[in-house]
Every structure is written in structure tokens, then in C-alpha cells.
Amino acid sequence: MPTKTISSEGLEPESGFTADSPTLAQAAQDLRTAAGHKAREFVQTAEVKASAFKERAVESAHHLRESAAEKAEQFKRTATEQWQDTRIKAKELQVTAEDYIRENPIQCVLGALGAGFLIGLIVRR
């Protein structure tokens, strides 16, 4: 079997592969075309994945917004209930204090005088 040698200009002319060969130029063109197709596929795949990611992000943001609104409404209801309870207890305390003062006026006046005297001593120092 004869051996083929590689010359400095390319492959042997008998084999049909030279630097000026149309098949080599065609192969290079085919590679460029294939690379272009792969690049477009890559771009399309990236666009599809980016779109899917955007959809998931929008969906997550919507879900988070709904959850936050529900929590805010729950806190608002709780705060309103607490405020109503506090108002009722304050009103009851006021009525109880007024009743005590009406029943024991002398003790209340003496207690107020004593408290005023102590506050006066503290403020003077």
C-alpha cells in the first residue's frame, strides 16, 4: 500500500484536498452556516428561557402581593379589634373612677392633696 505524504502547501493533490480546493471552501462555508444556525438556536433558547423566567417572576410577585395584602388586612382587623377593646376598657375605667370619687370624695381630695405635695417637693429639688 502506497503511503501519502503531506506537503507544506496542504494535502496531496491526488487526494483532491488542497488549499484552493472548492470542497475545503465549501466545508468552511458549511461550518460558518452551521455556527450561524447554532447561534440562532442559542438565542432562541435563551429568549424562551428568559420569557419563562419572567413569567415565573411576575407570578411570584403577584402571589407575594396577594399574600402581603391578606396579611395587611389581617393586621388591620386585629388592630381595629384591639382598639375597640381598649376604648371599652378605658370607658369602663372612667365610669368606675367617677363612681369611686362620688362615693368617697373626702378620701379622693386628701389623696390628690398628698400627691400634689409630693410632686411639689420633687420638682423643687
Protein architecture, described:
The chain is mostly helical and 125 residues long. It has one domain (21-124). It is 82% helix and 0% strand. The chain is built from 2 helices and no strands. It has helices at 22-103, 105-124. It is rod-shaped, with a radius of gyration of 46 Å. The relative contact order is 0.03. The model is unreliable at 4-10 (pLDDT under 50).
Blueprint (SSEs and pairs):
Layout lengths: L21 H82 L1 H20 L1
Instruction: Give the distance, in angstroms, between the N- and C-terminal Cα atoms.
Output: 123 Å
Low-confidence stretches: 4-10
Q: Could you give the count of β-strands?
A: 0
Strand percentage: under 5%
- Count of discrete domains: 1
Radius of gyration: 46 Å
Shape descriptor reads rod-shaped
Give the helix tally: 2
- State the order of secondary-structure elements, H for helix, E for strand: HH
Helix-and-strand structural type: mainly alpha
- Percentage of residues in helical conformation: over 70%
The residue-averaged pLDDT reads 86
The biggest sheet amounts to: none
